[in-house]
Specification:
The chain contains 12 helices and 13 strands. The protein is α/β, with parallel strands linked by helices. The termini are far apart.
């Protein structure tokens, strides 16, 4: 009886949360840019560490943008790479004829380390009104910046959250990651649309210089190596209100990021993502995170109870089906934007695996250590090595 009561409380709360997010996504109108000439000065900042295998592909993508060169600047900030990332950027600048708007900055020891420090140094050097952030392993279509700038010119938000699609590389593991990523980005889109943004992805965000300066940048959360996107989003929300943050629903605004190839690297990435949650102060974000964690954790606990006592199997099966019914409409609808409907065939399996790893990573990410790009990070967020 107690199991049943707890199940009802947890899953009703979860249903309200996901239903609200789903409604937000369905209400969000797609954006189509008009034919007016661009006038917004845009600065793209990329923090790069040990990205020798990806950086040239990114640069080709950025320099292929259909946006006036005099209104676009690209700043690559090298975060103490131990490979030849910097030299590759320098060679790219030297051999390309249209790189007068491309600049390389190398972080010094005095300027710190980590993505936040890199972004901050890039912002100090830029001249643009609209700041766009992406990752060094990403690529985008040639209308990406034009779409972001057009949306900004029309709606004037302080922050834009853009869609991100994970390419699976053709592997089964990659497909599972891509499907899970749909759940994250769709939640970011729907929650932002309905008025309580709870997720952002640093592979595709844009914000004004005014917003960054008014919020004090990353002041107060520099001790967390990750979370540049989430902390800035919550700071802007606190300063300007939730309506100042918009999700851009447009296929031309999609940025593509690759799935993680190895399981160990995947776990380390997710540990890094979760580790920043210790710094959350936004009540809606905290409540939503706890509710998602409890729902997945309760599903796993009920499954384990069913293994020990078959009498719990019907309860476990019922909760599993209910959770799929709650989650599926949002997943189906969002998958149309990035043309990934075939991945939905893996949805039942992903729901089970996601519940298990959400529980385990949720715990480990807040008490343990992880490694990322040659750095070891303790549960206090201090980088070593």
């Amino acid at each position: 009886m107690i199991f049943l009561l707890i199940s009802v409380i947890v899953f009703v709360g979860y249903a309200f949360l996901i239903t609200a997010i789903t409604i937000g996504w369905l209400k969000l109108k797609g954006f189509k840019k008009n034919d007016s000439l661009p006038t917004i000065k845009v600065s793209i900042i990329v923090a790069a560490r040990n990205e020798a295998g990806n950086i040239e592909m990114l640069l080709n993508s950025l320099l292929a943008q259909d946006y006036p060169l005099h209104l676009l600047e690209i700043i690559i900030v090298d975060d103490h790479s131990s490979d030849n990332t910097s030299s590759l950027v320098e060679e790219f600048i030297a051999k390309s004829k249209e790189t007068q708007n491309l600049k390389l900055i190398k972080l010094t020891e005095d300027e710190g380390s980590g993505k936040k420090a890199a972004i901050n140094q890039g912002i100090q050097a830029l001249k643009g009104e609209l700041i766009v952030i992406t990752d060094a392993d990403c690529i985008a279509g040639n209308k990406w910046i034009l779409t972001l700038a057009s949306y900004f010119a029309e709606h004037h938000p302080q922050m834009i959250l853009g869609p991100v699609s994970m390419t699976d590389g053709g592997s089964f593991f990659g497909k599972l990651q891509s499907l899970e990523f749909i759940s994250l980005i769709s939640a970011a889109a729907g929650s932002c649309s309905v008025g309580f943004p709870i997720l952002a992805n640093g592979a595709n965000i844009a914000f004004t210089r005014q917003a960054y300066d008014s919020c004090g940048g990353f002041t107060g959360n520099m001790q967390f190596p990750s979370g540049d996107d989430m902390f800035l989003m919550t700071s802007i929300k606190k300063k300007f209100g939730a309506k100042a943050i918009r999700f851009l629903r447009s296929e031309e605004a999609i940025v593509y990021t690759p799935a993680i190839l190895g399981f160990k690297a995947f776990i380390q990435q997710r540990l890094r993502w979760v580790s920043k949650s210790r710094g959350y102060t936004d009540p809606t974000l905290i409540i939503s995170s706890i509710l998602v964690f409890l729902t997945n954790g309760w599903l796993v606990l009920t499954g384990l109870a069913a293994i020990v006592n078959p009498g719990f199997f019907k309860l476990f099966l019922g909760l599993y089906v209910i959770k799929m019914i709650i989650d599926l409409p949002l997943m189906l609808s969002y998958s149309r934007l990035q043309k990934s409907r075939p991945l939905i065939a893996l949805f039942p399996l992903m729901e089970l695996l996601n519940a298990v790893y959400t529980l385990l990573i949720g715990i480990a990410g807040n008490i343990g250590k992880y490694e990322w790009k040659g750095r070891r990070v303790s549960n206090k967020g201090m980088e070593r090595g």
